[in-house]
């Protein structure tokens, strides 16, 4: 019976003719690197995530994708026929869960690239790329790159149909808001309508004064402010 670890695995799982033997240590090294680097990406994802839609399963998915891709790249090697066979096998997979945020898709691509680099033997490239990508991702969040000035808030008003919503609240909006956009008007047939605006307060804490002014203009109105809607994609 073989005594060396690699010889033992080859004896335990013999390969058929025409199929190259996969070195066990190389496979373990590739999968191990993919696991460690994808964990680092998952940690950056957790630290930089904003909003209540964070899911632990997303991090687990990143890690699983990275190690699976690393193993698949080890199996494929330079065999073109094997690569096409793998693509055909993966084409039957269907994903029914919608991705909540487009940012998650980018992280999936990132961990896939890391798994490919580890699986093809580019460990140093995978390490440098992971460190660089994580630094860029953290900088994007740390310096709030791409954010619009001001804080957008959704204002929902339930008012009587007799109230002219297009002009009745102009004075209150001018006094407390930097900008306002009418988004929707909905009637439930009971004599009341729901009007939704996207608003930008002039200064922090102006929401309370705005609600008091709206209540003065329309005493029977029911007002609701939705904060952070841009993070949860309402």
Keywords:
2 domains; single chain; 4 strands; alpha+beta; Alpha-Beta Plaits; four-stranded antiparallel sheet; 234 residues
Cα Rg? 28 Å
What structural class is derived from the secondary structure elements?
Answer: alpha+beta
Proportion of residues in β-strands: 5-15%
Instruction: Please report the total strand number as a whole number.
Output: 4
SSE sequence, one letter per element: HHHHHHEHEEHEH
Name the strands of the widest sheet in spatial order.
Answer: 2-3-1-4
* Count of individual domains: 2
Explain this structure to me?
The protein has 9 helices and 4 strands. The protein is of the alpha+beta class and 234 residues long. The protein has a 4-stranded antiparallel β-sheet with strand order 2-3-1-4. Helix 7 (170-176) runs antiparallel to helix 8 (206-217). The protein folds into 2 domains: 5-142, no CATH class; 153-232, Alpha-Beta Plaits (2-Layer Sandwich). 54% of the residues lie in helices and 15% in strands. It starts with a helix and ends with a helix. The model has no long low-confidence stretch (mean pLDDT 82).
């Amino acid at each position: 019976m073989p005594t060396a670890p690699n010889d033992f695995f080859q004896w335990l799982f013999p390969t058929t003719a025409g199929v190259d033997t996969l070195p066990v240590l190389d496979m373990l090294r590739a999968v191990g690197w993919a696991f460690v680097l994808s964990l680092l990406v998952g940690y950056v994802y957790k630290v930089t995530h904003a909003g209540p839609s964070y899911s632990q399963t997303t991090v687990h998915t990143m890690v699983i994708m990275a190690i699976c891709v690393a193993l698949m790249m080890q199996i494929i090697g330079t065999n073109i026929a094997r690569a096409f066979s793998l693509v055909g096998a993966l084409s039957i997979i269907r994903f029914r869960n919608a991705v909540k945020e487009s940012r998650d898709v980018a992280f999936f691509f990132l961990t896939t690239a890391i798994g490919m680099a580890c699986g093809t033997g580019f460990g140093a490239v995978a390490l440098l790329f992971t460190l660089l990508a994580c630094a860029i991702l953290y900088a994007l969040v740390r310096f709030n790159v791409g954010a619009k000035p001001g804080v957008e808030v959704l204002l929902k008003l339930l008012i009587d149909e007799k109230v002219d919503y297009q002009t009745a609240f102009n004075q209150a909006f001018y006094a407390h808001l930097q900008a306002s956009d009418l988004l929707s008007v909905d009637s439930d047939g009971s004599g009341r309508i729901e009007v939704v605006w996207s608003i930008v307060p002039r200064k922090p804490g102006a929401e309370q004064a705005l609600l008091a002014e709206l209540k003065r203009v329309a005493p029977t109105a029911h007002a609701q402010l939705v904060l952070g809607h841009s993070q949860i994609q309402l």
